[in-house]
Amino acid sequence: MSQLTVALDMMGGDYGPPVTVPAAVQALSLLPELNLVLFGSQTELSPWLRRFRLASHTRVRVQFCSQQVGNEHKAAYALRHLTDSSMRRALDALASGQARACVSAGNTGALMAMAMKTLSTLPGVDRPALITRLPQTGGGHALLLDVGANLNCGAEQLVQFALMGEQAARHILNISHPRIALLNVGAEANKGNEAVREAGLRLQQVDALHYSGYIEGDDLFSGQADVVVCDGFVGNVALKTSEGVARLLLGQRQQRGFLSKILTFWLKKRLSHLNPDQYNGASLIGLRASVVKSHGSAGSPAFLNAILQAVSEIEHDLPASIAHRFDTAPRDSHAR
Amino acid sequence: MSQLTVALDMMGGDYGPPVTVPAAVQALSLLPELNLVLFGSQTELSPWLRRFRLASHTRVRVQFCSQQVGNEHKAAYALRHLTDSSMRRALDALASGQARACVSAGNTGALMAMAMKTLSTLPGVDRPALITRLPQTGGGHALLLDVGANLNCGAEQLVQFALMGEQAARHILNISHPRIALLNVGAEANKGNEAVREAGLRLQQVDALHYSGYIEGDDLFSGQADVVVCDGFVGNVALKTSEGVARLLLGQRQQRGFLSKILTFWLKKRLSHLNPDQYNGASLIGLRASVVKSHGSAGSPAFLNAILQAVSEIEHDLPASIAHRFDTAPRDSHAR
Questions:
Q1: ipTM computed for the complex
Q2: Which residue of A lies nearest to B274 if distances are taken between CA atoms?
Q3: What is the pLDDT of residues A131-140, one digit of tens each?
Q4: pLDDT digits over B173-192, tens only?
Q5: DSSP per position, A111-164
Q6: CA atoms within a 13 Å half-sphere pointing along the CA-CB vector of A255
Q7: What structural domains and CATH numbers belong to chain A?
Q8: For chain A, which terminal residue's Cβ has fewer other Cβ atoms within 10 angstroms, N or C?
């Protein structure tokens, strides 16, 4: 197969094949270079493959697996016992070089644990981080990490996230000198917890890094930073809160009447910024290959977006850029 | 003076007397029972008192102070050296029984430290928490705590916040059996960090508490809980992120043309939910008297709202309710 091969966990997320198969079909028709390796249960996947004539597609290989990772599975359990799951097998395909990126809408904790086991992190990276895009007031995007892969982070991890985020912004957002900020509860130097303050001091010392200081939650969308760094608990709550506000504004209660319906339509268009269908696909970065985590509740358009994001990461060779950054960053500035 | 006396720090926040004096005047005219004790710098406050004829008002007492707490002051410094500041003197007035509640728009860290020193916490309460209201999709409100007073919280503190929040919901929101939830990164029992998981286990054991489990950021506004508990770092980021999303949606860029202006007006009305002018006044609860923290950037209407909130807390005697709850909750369920 060519270099542009993506492994897909067809079973993850709330819907499985009814969502993942149509997305795969569309990705193949959009990108003539793309090859896919599909992993899933024979019983559940086959009818959908037949329906969409995917089984005989020249750029598709199908590998059936006997297990699935559920949302109820703890990471440690999945790691030990679900070695023939579609998620695990898709990651194995990266490790063996069969594919260069992988997409799954499954359990984040299990995906993280399995990815660390099968792919391992890049030299100098302790733990991968989950990174996602945020729309900005003036147009364009910023990146936010971590959004849920690491719930407790020390200063060292936050510094590593900053270096990884910098490369992601350079290659994914195409910003040559991205401004890096730390998410905090105030802008003054004495604000925040120990990890954030220590990370701030250390980021000031990192060579050739544009560190712009602390940023508060109300500036996440204001265009003040290109990369915002925080621990995974805080990032996850911030991301989901923004979705919650969007939903509050679209609350059904006020949609009676024609004018109200028009206004709601207009608002929805504006809120498409925050629509997970368009902003789907957080990436697990810091690993030796690209792993894209699709939203569990993603529909086909959202899962397609996640596939396209995986392709973009292959094309930019994000893992190589991160490896290079960690190789050249002065050791003492981010070593524990 | 009567029982309904509020002490006001006239110097706190970004504006001081130009904002606090008009708010005080309006509060006095709205509430014929209200008495105020005003604390501030003679030079800065006097011209405004003269302008609004407050100096000779029968329900007003003015006490001049020589110092002010700035945003740049660390809590420890303020505590030791700013003992004649308007903030400190207003809190002293609570401690001496001269007033029953206090309002300040000043530095949160200093306010917290000074309040703990002068008022001390209620028996069984380790640290006060900052609590605020959140609008809900179906109408009504929920309470969120802590929103910035305690950046690192263990399980014990989260449990205490739940008990305090329960009483606040009962008396401020008038909900007899409020549903209490913990803010987390997932709804499943195995999600979250250690403090949140341990707090969840302990809340299940608390007598007569309606604990409803974990809630995620996207449900902060969905009406699923009446009280949402988290540490102050997470709560602060969640609250400010929601303000940031509101601002993103009101971004100036798209306001050209007549229709766009009408739509933006409509949207602003809808967003008034999240307008700090209307939702101003987070309270520091768990202390022996009511301390209301106004937004630093509050204008007069917002500062007025904070005064009204202080009055409401006096009328409901929230400190007494919290004291009673901690007295009756079984010791082993919330003792460390």
A1: 0.86
A2: A245
A3: 998 888 777 8
A4: 999 999 999 999 988 777 88
A5: HHHHHHHHT-BPTT-SS-EEEEEEE-TTSSEEEEE-SSS-SS--HHHHHHHHHH
A6: 15
A7: 1-125+286-336 (3.40.718.10), 132-243 (3.40.718.10)
A8: C
